[in-house]
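Lab manual, section 2.4: Encoding a predicted structure.

Procedure: take the sequence of the chain (440 residues), apply the prediction step described in section 2.3, and record the output as structure tokens. A sample record is shown.
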Amino acid sequence: MPTSDLLHPDFETLADGEVRALQDRLWAVQWDYVSDRSAMYRRMLPASIGRPVTLDGLQDLPLTDKEDLRAGQEAAYPFGDYVACAEESIVRLHRTSGTTGRALNLANSRQDCDRIATIGGRAMHASGLRSADRVVHCLNYCMWTGGVTDHMTLEAAGATVVPFGVGNTRQLLQTIRDLKITAISCTPSYPALLEKLLRDEGGPAPRDLGLRLGLFGGEAGLDNAAFRATMEETWGFGVRNANYGLSEVLSTLGSQCEATTDLHFHGSDYLFAEILDAAGNRLPIREGTVGELVCTHIEKECQPLIRYRTRDVVTVTGTGRCACGRTSWRFRVSGRTDDMFNVRGINVFPSAVRKAVSSQPTLSSGHFRIRLVGPGPYDRIQLRVEAAEGLPETAWPTAAAELEKAVREQAGATASVTMIPHDSLPRTAGKTDWIERVAS
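Recorded output:
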């Protein structure tokens, strides 16, 4: 790709040494800011406060995880004691989904919002979105970052954005036709619902809608070559994993370009990335490296993080210049360090499901199994739940409905509950595996 076609050629084509020099300059300022303004890190890093810490020296500091953020938020609600800016500087608030306990509140300043949008726009442009496109955005515009924040990244790429949101599928299909939409931003599982409606109502074939680009995120599954090929054949559009990220770190830090199905790491002027082995040792970012991605903000105003565990295991697939012209390193997300799974863009933890089931002792014994068929993406939480002792079978349909409601309230995702007899699941003195994985 010619340099003129890149969204930010002044950064996206820099050599590794030039990127690192920029990171060092940004971090020197950021470290002084965080050590002066973040109560959480002043508490966590007492021996380091007041002395210089380089990016190489980060590996001597402890890791931060989501439990640290949750504890800090509970101690200083609603923004947490890791917030580093004045409250008057906060201009946008989001929330995480699929966690146990109270959801995390994510605060951003005007500067934070602008940087997040710029890097996200960089990612969308890499995936093929252009100023001539009209893109319909079909993610939830509630409090999750996938709505408003991803909308801003689409605008930052220069496209005309139609903020459709979720639901009203018939109107969406009509909107695509009426406005001659050329791109869609949604979860990878959503096109299947559109296909079904078109088929059931005798509408046009999906590829006849004229979409040229599908920008997907919020769910796994796009690394499945057969799934991708089927979608491209059915719809006639280019399939891109366009917005890999974590709400508390950077909404979009990785996307696929038009030359590879690997993800480019787009956020190196905002984040310093480490890849750690199981023992916590830093590994070199070079082709073939596998480990957990850990991120440090080198330019963040509201809720800066240092050595934050993403829990994502990544495999580095390339460094140096890509065929698209970008020099950012490439990777694939190969797994999680915990049992989290994704349902229609919502991150779900078995512990959240367990809390929901256990909250209904008159309906269930508290024992259950989550059934995951294939690699995903999933459209709901499939559960087998033991009935409470003595609960008559005639009451099972009502119990299932109440448990589905409880799981949705606690975990944030739709559940389908099948009741099974009391004491029918095995007990164990050790750790219970709540998930049954079944090959598709």
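Check your result against the sample. Residues 1-336 form a domain with the Rossmann fold fold (CATH 3.40.50.12780).
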